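SEVERITY: medium
COMPONENT: batch folding queue
REPORTER: lab tech (J.R.)

DESCRIPTION
The queue accepted two submissions in a row. Attaching both inputs and their returned C-alpha cells so the on-call engineer can compare them side by side.

ATTACHMENT 1
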Amino acid sequence: MNPQCARCGKVVYPTEKVNCLDKYWHKGCFHCEVCKMALNMNNYKGYEKKPYCNALLLEGLEGYWDQYVPSGLMQPSLLE
C-alpha cells in the first residue's frame, strides 16, 4: 500500500514521492510552510517535522518570519 502525503493526505505513488522529515510528500506538496516556495532535498530546513526554505535563513527575513509563523517557533537562523 502506498503512503499518504503529509500535506494533502492523498496517496503518494513512487514516481512522485519525496521522503523527508520522516514523512512522505508529493513533489508539489513539499514546499516551505512560510513562503510556499517549492523545496527539494538541497534547499530545505526542517523544524518540528515541517519544511522551511533556506531563503529565510540566508536573507534574514525576521520580519517576514514573525508575520507568518505562529509565535513560539524558533527564528529561522536557529533551525538546523
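ATTACHMENT 2
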Amino acid sequence: MNKECTYDFSHARRGIALLIHNEEYDPTSRFNNRPGDNEDFKHMLEIFKELEFDVHPHRNLKSSDISNRAKEVSEMKDMHKKSDCFVCVIAAHGEEIQEGKSTMTEHVIFGTDGIPIQTREIVEMFDENNCEELVDKPKFFFIQVSS
C-alpha cells in the first residue's frame, strides 16, 4: 500500500473520544427530551473504551458547556501528540439555518438550554490552525441530530 495513503497508528495512545449526548432539555427551551439517548450513550461509551480510546463522556450540556468541553479537549496538546487520531460524537437537537440573505446554510446543534452552536465552531477547534498536534492524523466527527 502507498505509504502516502495511510495514517500512522503506532503512537502510544489510540486517542481521545469526546462524547456529548443531550437527552434532557430545559422545559423553557423549544425542544422535547430525546428519550432513548441514554442507551445510545452507554453503547458509545462501551465501544470507544473497547477500542482503547481515552473517553471524555458528557451528558446534558448547555451550549456554552459544549464549547467549553470541546475547547478543553482541543487544548490537550500532549495527549494529542501521543495519539493516533481523534473522535467526537455529538447527539443532540439540531437544524440547518440560513445565513442572512445568503443561500448558504449553517448546521447547528442545541445545548440543553436551547441555544444554538455552529457545528463548524466545534470542528474548527481541532483543525490545523487550532490543534497542530492533530495535523496529518484522522479526525472523526459523528454528529447525530434530531429536530
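NOTES FROM REPORTER
The longest helix spans residues 37-50.
No errors were logged for either attachment.
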